[in-house]
Fold this sequence. Notes:
This protein is an alpha+beta fold. The protein has a single domain (39-486), classed as CATH 1.10.630.10. 50% of the residues lie in helices and 8% in strands. It has helices at residues 2-37, 65-76, 95-104, 137-152, 158-176, 186-202, 211-226, 230-237, 247-251, 253-271, 281-289, 293-297, 302-333, 335-348, 364-377, 409-413, 456-473; strands spanning 79-84, 87-92, 386-387, 392-394, 397-399, 404-407, 474-477, 489-492, 494-497, 503-506. The protein has a four-stranded mixed β-sheet. Strand 4 (392-394) and strand 5 form a beta hairpin. Helix 6 runs antiparallel to helix 13, helix 13 packs across helix 14 (335-348) and helix 13 packs parallel to helix 17. The protein starts with a helix and ends with a strand. Mean pLDDT is 87; it is low at 24-34. It comes from Serinus canaria. One of its GO terms (biological process) is alkaloid catabolic process. Its cofactor is heme. It is found in: Membrane.
Amino acid sequence: MALLLWLGSQLSSIWSNISILGVFLTVFALLLDFMKRRKKWSRYPPGPASLPFLGTMFSVDFHNPHRSFSQLQKKFGNIFSLQNCWTNLVVLNGYKTVKEALVHKSEDFADRPPFPIYEHIGYGENSEGIVVARYGHVWKELRRFALSTLRNFGMGKKSLEEHVVEEAGFLCSEIMSEEGKSFDIQVLLKNAVCNMICHIVFGDRFDYGDETFKKLLQLFQNSLDEETGFLPQLLNVVPILVRIPGVPQKAFQAQKELMDFIDVAIEKHRKTWDPAYTRDITDVFLKEMEKGKAAEENGFHYNNLRLVTLDLFTAGSETTSTTIHWALLYMLLHPEIQSKVQEEIDRVIGRERPPAMTDQASMPYTNAVIHEVQRCGDVVPLGIPHRTYRDTELQGFFIPKGTTVIINLSSVLKDETVWEKPNEFYPEHFLDAKGQFVKPEAFLPFSAGRRACLGEQLARMELFLVFTTLLQKFTFVVPEDQPRPRVDSHFALTNSPHPYLLRALPR
């Protein structure tokens, strides 16, 4: 009996000690969390209440973050703060705010935050590609390389323009084979635009029915879907979770498969590389790598070749094809606008000759419609997060160095102080009283400043040539047995239309 009493007292003592330890650890964790979340800066932007450990993550719908930001903007103003766990974020809204940050204080907001969810495919120190690379010497060298190489391969020149027109012709042939029946055009648009990037990066194109090509396009879409929602945000701000064996492989399987595809393509390219003959951007990068240690210090090494290639594919295909997808949707919903575009095409180009970039200056209405598609479609509502390169001030608020900054481009493209009808499809936003094309400064679908989209000129060329070719050859209508298509969007890093069917009637 005495033994049982003694054991009971010992267990009670142990339990008491465990309880005390548990209370101590809980209090310590809460204090540590409070210290991590405590804002020690005066004039820091306001924001919603921050919960222990998770911060303000429940204040944002990560499947529609730009819409959450619109609601928070109404409550806290054009500059407000959030906190993903212990990561400080500031969201910038409205044209004046975004312009001041990206144009007038360009270098202050030129950095990028780390993205741990990309580490498993090769991102790391000195291996960051271009799009998500930290601001500094290597990023400047690689961006300069990409811009100059795109120019040399015909960006704005006839050679690349002819290639885009040729691919638009292949696209029209595929559409013609539908014989006016109801179909979903989304995959064909992705085929065409992705082939344009394949030509620039690998000097070749795929047949639309090629099984490898189909797999590549599916991997692109799956990769975008994987990076949307709460889980990727949590893994980025609690990077220790990404380093648990098997987690990134399971959470980002398509991302890894897409990188594997690019590795195979590059290796095949290297085996056929002839330094005396330049076929594409990959060849130019390989030639830079041959320059030795100095080139490697400037970022020209094999891992960056992989990542730059991935950057060009993902940034150059999804956004442009999605914009054209929006354009056709708006033509279905506004047949009177489609007719006016076709009248201008017939008058300036005719029905036989392919469109050329020199036609654009003579086609103000078509140009206005394309720009309104970009504004209203709002394809990249948030862009890629920025990071402050140094302590800075913006409209009276202090934003410390190392703060992640979200640029709400959607709030610029729909800014009620700038656009007459911000929530309607209204091409007159880009026309003056005489019907001539004008471009308001708040038109920033490609962002602005040092981190503006490096493929902007290429995208503009593709949009004009493909859109005018399609409307030159076809009239697009809603099938009689189909409901009116939805005008709201689906968000997966980009804003895309919900699936819809159309009929393409040859003109």
